[in-house]
Amino acid sequence: MPSVQRYDSVPIRDYHFDDQTGFLYVYRVPIAGAMVQKYVKSDGSEEMEAKLPEEILSDATVSSANSKPVTDGHHGLVTKDNSHDLLKGFTASNGHVEGNMLYNDITITDPNLISQIKSGDKRELSIGFETQMDPTSGTYNGTKYDAVQRNIRINHVAVVPKGRAGHEVRLIGDSAEAVEQVEPSEEKGNQMETRVVRADGQNITVAADDVEKITKLDADNSAKAKQIADLDAQIKKLQSEKAQLQGDADASAKKADAAEAKVASLEDDKKKLQKQVDQLKGDAFDERLNLIDQVKGFVGDSDYDYHGKSDRDMKIDAVKAVRGDAIDFKDKSDEFVDAAFQLLEKPKKVSGYAGPEPETKGDAADPIAKAYYDLNHMYKGVK
Description:
39% helix, rod-shaped, 28% strand, alpha+beta, 383 residues
């Protein structure tokens, strides 16, 4: 026989509160009884199932009602793995039989659930149990049934909304919800037969012929709602990935700009070094060595440091070593500096220069001649 899960409901009747703990106590609760009930299974089909006295009132079933969890609604079977989150109270250990009913006491400890009971939002107790289905048909108290619930074992007692016959959780496998208790059959005349089913999170009363249609419609809506939730999750994930990629792109752009600036700086350094290298190659190298020797002849070989000095700087140093500060080289051209340096070795040509002032404008301008002319007049009277 297949093992399945079932839910039945009974109203919360008299209860009181403990003055010390504030816990809510419900005494002598009729948890279950011998009867025939109609169940709507997870696939929408209906089945008349019997709780026969020898099953529901057996010692094993009565014992299974003792010291069991009380939950806020149904969430499947309660185990040690989920009891920390689901446990809102417990049943007593005095399960017993009166007539054809199984009774027990219940204690509710959760303040939120107690408040909902006091406000009337939740006023029924619904047992969650496991049973094995025996597909043997028969009649009990004049009511026909399609199968018998065997080996009934109570797992928990859930507090559910007032008037509720269905439950939030649709269990996997062959789980079902009791929609009504069927009394011994009587003629109902032309009265329409109705059923209470769970649709869109609400309990609604519908014509018996519409139960299958409503149940399938609710299942379709639930599937679409899940698809929407899945799409929302995918959208959020893609938005997060987009933001991360944008951040990575911005960081990469900054790194690229910094690298480009570094390359430009290195290129400038390379050009400067190359210029210095070029200055030391070929004839320029020989000319500089010759100039150094010439300058040392005027400034002294031992004390003069030419490192880091340009040709112009060394020539000015040589002129100042001989002439002192007689010449101000500020804003003077390189040709002027060259002429002043050359005159250190050819002073007679300067003192003997008596020609006309050279051309200083236009294409005929001769900067070297002009420099000699200026120096000639500057050195007049200097021996």
